[in-house]
Amino acid sequence: MSISQGLSNSRSVEAILGKSNRLVDKGLELQVLRPGERTNFEGKPIGNRILLGVPDEEFGLLRDHLLWVDLPHNTVLHEPRKKLEYAYFLNSGMASLVFNTNNGESVEVGVIGKEGFTPIPAAVGMLRSPHEALMQVGGDGFRIGFDELQAALSASRHLQRLLNRYATIHGMHTAQTAGCNRLHDLEQRLARWLLLIQDRVGSGLLRITHDFLAMMLGTDRPSVSLAAGGLRKKRIIDYSHGSVRILNRKKLESSACECYGVIQEFNAEMAK
């Protein structure tokens, strides 16, 4: 799978999820609405793709339990190994799933934006997650109690399918990232990661620091600065304290390893 093929699949997903369409799941029709065509009980518009993808009767089981929440940078959505109380469906921003070691080291194992939800183990009723989830790019979303989500899932075939499908694809992302971190150089990995962030936040200006990038990529700050400097010399990105700006998306795609295209191919499966 080439990067260009993965990107083509990604754009197909955007075309499907950005319009009002009907997806067929073994003879069952699934209406996908435009962002804002649904609201929670407070009247807050919904932009999360999973919540927009379930049929009306299943969304009705969720609507009265979806509380809109502001999610600024560094908000912790759930902690590792602690009992889960809530699930979150993001409208905007980006959350990182982080693996923390006992000696205080951390590395990112996944990212979540408006295409998904967290904690992923909640899709199958598990009460704990091995990972911490925190907002790396501030945004907003909807919170629902763990018990309320489980009750809705027991009566919602399409919702169960979407959550299970997302959980499976996210697991593929995690496995791909593990291989990428082992086999590809830091500049390629940094390019891949910046592309994934931009896909989720929809902006070329990313409010992130080199310290944060080092933690997410499992390396040290000087190494990240060296890799970022290489992309800067090629006029692909620019950066200042607390932010990175993508100047040339096409060149950034060319600088990333093949893992970005593979991950985008996985994402295309959500539309099937």
Helical content stands at 40-55%
If classified by CATH, what would the architecture of the largest domain be?
Sandwich
SSE order? HEEHHEEEEEEHHHEHHEEHH
Uncertain parts: 1-30
Q: How big is the Rg?
A: 18 Å
Task: Outline the biggest β-sheet.
Answer: 6 strands, antiparallel
Q: Which structural category do the helix and sheet elements fall into?
A: alpha+beta
| Distance between the amino and carboxyl termini | 18 Å
Average pLDDT number: 83
DSSP summary, beta strand count: 11
**Count of the separate structural domains:** 2
Strand content: 15-25%
Q: In CATH's first tier, which class of the largest domain applies?
A: Mainly Beta
What is the CATH T-level topology of the largest domain? Answer: Jelly Rolls
How many alpha or pi helices?
Answer: 10
CATH 4th-level superfamily of the largest domain: Jelly Rolls
